[in-house]
Amino acid sequence: MSDKTWKVTSLVVDNYIRNRNKRIEQKNPSMDDVISAIASLDGTGRSSLAVMGNDDSVVCVGGGGAQGFYVSATFRINDEDEVYSLSNSKKESEQEVDIILGSQSTSLPKHLVMLNINDVEKAVKYYFSNGSLDKSLIWIKS
């Protein structure tokens, strides 16, 4: 990266009302803003957000509520996107579960659905502070 100090530049939360999206973008959000946005995901109308860095990286969180969360991180490395998904297990699951992402039902492998919001918050807090993945969590490269 260049001589710029890494930082989060934007928080985007999608809020669907029926079939219309009311996208809310906040420039230079605080960590508290991001954590509050994660907590606000309800797995129905408000079911996706993106936290973007000044290096074109992004962490997306989808879902919410009792269905759990899906977390992905995308980094631009040598003009290629590297995508990672947060996992609740080192062992991949063939069982799929349905989760609402961006107001659309999506089937995901069970190991990619996080039921513990604390792990989701930990992953996003680390990204917010460091611009990278928390190596104490399980990440699967796509």
Protein described:
The protein has 142 residues and is an alpha+beta fold. Helix content is 17%, strand content 44%. It is built from two helices and nine strands. It has helices spanning 31-40, 117-130, and strands at 8-17, 20-27, 48-53, 58-63, 69-77, 80-87, 96-101, 104-109, 138-141. The strands form two sheets. The protein has a seven-stranded antiparallel β-sheet with strand order 2-1-3-4-5-6-9, with helices on one face. The relative contact order is 0.19.
Shape: globular
Number of strands: 9
Arithmetic mean of pLDDT: 94
Strand order of the largest sheet: 2-1-3-4-5-6-9
As a percent range, the share of helical residues equals: 10-25%
Structural class: alpha+beta
Cα radius of gyration in angstroms = 15 Å
Low-pLDDT segments = none
> Helix-strand pattern, N to C?
EEHEEEEEEHE
Strand content: 35-45%
The total of helices stands at 2
